[in-house]
Design goal:
369 residues; alpha/beta; two-stranded antiparallel ribbon; 14 strands
Length: 369
């Protein structure tokens, strides 16, 4: 689509119109996806660099800040931020203030990676934890000594799981103290909560394994705990029913996710954030199911994500396939992405060599129009 045609199409779309999300009136329907950039310090404390980065992108209707570890045990990549210590809370206050000063809204994504970690990243060199001792095949951990193959995780004991749920609640409280507008529960991309949902990774025989009711149990418990802190109207949840990311899959995901939606509907969450297809890959993989069934089943807003372009976003709104459209990598190299999409301007391509770790280069030095 030419720049002029894109601008005309954008002008006719409601993609750039305000929309209500819980108690907030968002400036537009464009969301900045959570993007791991590994630029916190070694203690998981973000600083002025993150504040600058997010403030540059505050024209998004909503920013979902990068996946943030709820505990030291939840860490799976170097220099990822945390949200359990006073120092981390103070660090994040710089970002929330900077975004709010620019008129933006920002949620924090609550993250526990489960088995997608390595002893080098765990307190005391312990094994990562998971629902079951099932190793993620052909996967590597990003450690301080470079990439290393994942090891077989330790299965959580039944009596440890309430502590994990409590960690989510504590992190949610810390996010509120840090000044975020809400939180998103990360139950996607092969991390801990999806490891419980998936029959490939959950081989448990207790109340957290086996049946769909049991496999969804911890996710519902986390939703319950987090909404007790925030209320449902300031909480979202991220799901990826069809992804293969981090060696995850399910033999029959449709009934699992429809059951989960039915169970969380009473909590009146603000949105579900759905990775449509394989994370960062094919949008309609073979053997998948119609994800619009989740949209129809859920009683809040539906946020769509996965390789969206302006054309796909406009089409999704015209056909009422999504309420909010999430853009990831385009926001890395286009801090003014909303303005560029609205005008049909060309997008600056990102430099993959600067995606992870490093400092300002490839992070806060991309030009605006």
């Amino acid at each position: 689509m030419s720049q002029s045609r894109a601008a005309v199409a954008a002008e006719q779309s409601d993609l750039f119109d305000p929309v209500q999300l819980g108690p907030y009136r968002l400036a537009n329907r464009i969301v900045m996806a959570p993007l791991t950039r590994s630029r916190a310090d070694d203690a998981g404390v973000p600083g002025e660099l993150q504040a600058t980065y997010y403030a540059q992108r505050a024209s998004a209707g909503l920013i979902i800040a990068e996946a943030t570890n709820i505990t030291a045990q939840g860490k799976g990549y170097i220099r990822t931020p945390g949200i359990w210590s006073p120092e981390q809370v103070d660090g994040w206050k710089l970002t929330t203030k900077a975004v709010h000063d620019k008129g933006g809204r920002i949620y924090l994504q609550l993250w526990h990676v489960g088995r997608v970690s390595h002893p080098d990243l765990q307190p005391g060199g312990a094994l990562p934890v998971a629902p079951s001792a099932v190793r993620a095949e052909n996967q590597q951990a990003y450690t301080y000594d470079g990439f290393k193959p994942l090891e077989t995780p330790r299965a959580l004991e039944t009596d440890e799981i309430p502590g994990i749920v409590a960690d989510y609640a504590h992190a949610a409280k810390c996010a509120m103290e840090a000044g975020f507008d809400g939180v998103e529960i990360h139950a996607a991309n092969g991390y801990l909560l999806q490891q419980f949902l998936s029959d490939k990774t959950n081989k448990r025989t207790d109340r957290y394994g086996g049946s769909i009711e049991n496999r969804t149990r911890i996710v519902v418990e986390v939703v319950d705990a987090v909404t007790k802190v925030w209320g449902g109207d300031r909480v979202g949840i991220r799901l990826s029913p069809l992804t293969k990311f981090a060696d995850i899959s399910d033999s029959n995901p449709e009934p699992v996710y429809l059951s989960l939606i039915e169970q969380i509907n009473p909590y009146n969450l603000a949105y579900i954030h759905v990775i449509e297809g394989d994370t960062g890959g094919e949008r309609h993989p073979a053997g998948g199911f119609d994800l619009q069934k989740l949209r129809r089943a859920f009683n809040g807003l539906y946020m769509a994500n996965n390789n969206y372009t302006l054309e796909l976003a406009i089409e999704a709104r015209e056909k009422n396939l999504a309420d909010l459209i999430c853009f990831g990598r385009p926001f890395i190299s286009n801090p003014d992405l909303v303005a560029r999409l609205r005008s049909g301007a060309a997008l600056t391509p990102p430099d993959p060599d600067t995606f992870y770790a490093g400092e300002a280069h490839g992070y806060t030095d991309y030009p605006a129009l």
